[in-house]
């Protein structure tokens, strides 16, 4: 399962100003759709609607044919994993930060997630500002490392649907390569909605949707969009 369908979705934070207008698309189970468009186009809003942070103003969002509004919060949270732009860490070890949302995970599963995100060396370290009982200082984590922690969390949680929000913005080349490798591991065979500013960060997307001022202006494969100019 994991088919995601947006059917003529509209939304406004404030009735005077529509943000999304008649947005329709479908992501077949296991496929990746990248959403690109200028800042303010409504990309993050669209992701928030899929996570049901807000309800649609008009139209419907369906997962495997079922309206989001008919799903319990619990099953929705289980169905969807998010790799956000800014990852919030708890004041505990990085290993704990990855495992906390998956209490049933085995040691083996935790290590597999850490390996895929290339975080094995970090597992017992603490985030910046903390200190262990033996006086070892916490690590100052880069934005890319925090994103890999978020990716490892999602790998462990193993949801059928994934939202990636600008997952490789503002990274250097090496950090970006590590992220892309981890993203390929996490998005493989998962229904993925990937939000991006730059096309180079979404090479693994089968289809691309261009959003501008809350409307779908183009939709197709990489090659189709290039041909259309
Ligand atoms: P095939 O198995 O023939 O290579 P796919 O399984 O890749 O085809 O895709 C099946 C159909 O779903 C194709 O028409 C393809 O364009 C479409 N498709 C694949 N990914 C997406 C997506 N993210 N959003 C919308 N349609 C998609
Ligand atoms: P994008 O992700 O494409 O940059 P957003 O979805 O973040 O676009 O924003 C789309 C529009 O909605 C922008 O004009 C933004 O200012 C507005 N907006 C975003 N979040 C809120 C909010 N919580 N309350 C009111 N307006 C918002």
From TrEMBL:
It comes from the Bacteria. It is found in: Cell membrane. Residues 4-229 form the ABC transporter domain. This is ATP-binding cassette, subfamily B. The chain holds residues 350 to 578 of 593 of the full protein.
């Amino acid at each position: 399962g994991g088919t995601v369908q947006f059917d003529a979705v509209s939304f406004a934070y404030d009735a005077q100003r529509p943000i999304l207008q008649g947005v329709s698309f479908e992501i077949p189970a296991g496929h990746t759709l990248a959403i690109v468009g200028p800042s303010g186009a409504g990309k993050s809003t669209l992701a928030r609607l899929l996570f049901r942070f807000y309800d649609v103003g008009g139209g419907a969002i369906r997962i495997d044919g079922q309206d989001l509004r008919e799903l319990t919060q619990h099953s929705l949270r289980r169905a969807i994993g998010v790799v956000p732009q800014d990852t919030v860490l708890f004041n505990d070890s990085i290993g704990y930060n990855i495992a906390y949302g998956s209490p049933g995970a085995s040691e083996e599963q935790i290590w597999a997630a850490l390996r895929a995100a290339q975080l094995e060396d970090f597992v017992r370290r603490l985030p910046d500002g903390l200190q262990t009982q033996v006086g070892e200082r916490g690590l100052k984590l880069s934005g890319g490392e925090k994103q890999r922690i978020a990716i490892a969390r999602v790998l462990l949680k193993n949801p059928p649907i994934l939202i990636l929000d600008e997952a490789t913005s503002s990274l250097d080349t090496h950090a970006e390569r590590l992220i892309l490798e981890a993203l390929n591991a996490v998005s493989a065979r998962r229904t993925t909605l990937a939000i991006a500013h730059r096309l180079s960060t979404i090479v693994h997307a089968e289809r691309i949707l261009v959003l501008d001022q809350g409307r779908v202006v183009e939709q197709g494969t990489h090659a189709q969009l290039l041909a259309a100019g």
